[in-house]
């Protein structure tokens, strides 16, 4: 019974996550946090889906942090990712997706307080996500785009031209692999990295 109830809470949370992104029901973001938290709290320790519930809760907490800038949401999300990602991998789940989400959260931490440790960790987990050869190219291209942004931030923070060169290489691959809005995002990221390199190297 607890496992079945957790599935229902998770499905309800997922529905609210999707509807919150449409913009017509802003209260769904808070409801999604509540439902995803109920899924995690209801699931037994032996439930193989528990790590996925934690990853979903972490993801929506980051989205709420982006809206409200409440540091507690970001800190909780990062703690959840640290536990959930290795567990998702052990359970045979989509670990690269969770790693990408974790990398984005770590970038948020870096942008909040310029913690270089968080930035280095973001680069590490995003490299792992992008290295997943089982992911479709269009999906992996999105991972590469985020990795390129993290490398560009590292190049700026550490005055590291090697990181900027790697960012350009990564973002060129992202441009080739992405489609639709993701392709536009990859083009913009690549353009910014090339501009940075042009200014650095004159």
Written account of the structure:
The protein has 202 residues and is mainly alpha-helical. It is built from 9 helices and no strands. It has helices at residues 2-20, 28-42, 50-68, 71-90, 95-113, 116-130, 137-158, 161-177, 180-201. Helix 4 packs antiparallel against helix 5 and helix 5 (95-113) packs antiparallel against helix 6 (116-130). The longest helix is centred in the C-terminal third of the chain and has 22 residues, at 137-158. The mean pLDDT is 93.
Write the layout of secondary structure elements.
Blueprint lengths: L1 H19 L7 H15 L7 H19 L2 H20 L4 H19 L2 H15 L6 H22 L2 H17 L2 H22 L1
**For the residues shown, what is the average pLDDT?**
93
What shape does the CA trace take? elongated
The largest pleated sheet is described as: none
Structural classification: mainly alpha
Entry summary:
This protein is an all-alpha fold and 202 residues long.
Please name the defining characteristics of this protein.
202 residues; mainly alpha; 9 helices; 83% helix; elongated
